[in-house]
Amino acid sequence: MKQKSIEELGKEIWGLLNFETNIKSLHIFLGLDDISVSIETFMNWAVFPELIPADIRQSIERKLRYRFEEKISIEPFDMTEDESQLHEKTVELIHFKYSNYISSTQRYYYLYKLPLASFKKVLEQFVKYGYSDSETIFKYYLYYTSLKEREDS
């Protein structure tokens, strides 16, 4: 039951960030600033909802359910350049999470901008939480290393 709830929350966040709102507006709507959750932490949670502490996850689920039942719109907030980039990175990583098996390796701009250690850590998380497998991730790792070699030469 818990895993199904986490999967549903991840897909809900994916839909909201792709079609309805931006990461800053969602962060504010969910009241995460009020409990001292940074927008960067929320970015990680948006990609990996497994990382959200259970009590906060339940609160988020309640707020999103209430929003749906009462047909409440999320108030849009303007983002800074950094927040816009964070939004784009988040959306890209969520897209990777759900599409890495079928996506072209060239598709992921922000993923390949990560330093090697961060890149490896992110890919390990996708495998750990079952969003990819080692063989698929290795394909992206090979592309990343060849891209970095070309940049260095």
What features would you describe in this structure?
The chain is built from eight helices and no strands. The protein is mainly α and about 150 residues long. The protein has helices spanning about 1-20, 25-30, 40-45, 55-70, 80-100, 110-115, 115-130, 135-150. The model has no long low-confidence stretch (mean pLDDT about 95). The chain starts with a helix and ends with a helix. Helix 3 (about 40-45) runs parallel beside helix 5 (about 80-100). The chain is about 70% helix and about 0% strand.
Q: What is the structural class?
A: mainly alpha
Contiguous runs where pLDDT drops below 50 for at least 5 residues: none
- For the termini, the CA-CA separation is 50 Å
Helix residue percentage: 55-70%
The average pLDDT score comes to 95
Number of strands: 0
Shape: globular
- Percent of sequence in beta strands: under 5%
What profile does the largest beta sheet have? none
Assembly type:
single chain
List the secondary-structure elements in sequence, H or E: HHHHHHHH
Count of helical stretches:
8
Q: From the alpha carbons, calculate the radius of gyration and give it in angstroms.
A: 16 Å
Tags for this model:
single chain, 0% strand, mainly alpha, 8 helices, 153 residues
Please outline the helices and strands:
Elements: H1 2-20, H2 23-29, H3 39-47, H4 54-69, H5 81-99, H6 109-113, H7 116-128, H8 134-152
Helix pairs in contact: 3-5
Could you write a compact summary of the structure shown?
The chain is mainly alpha-helical.
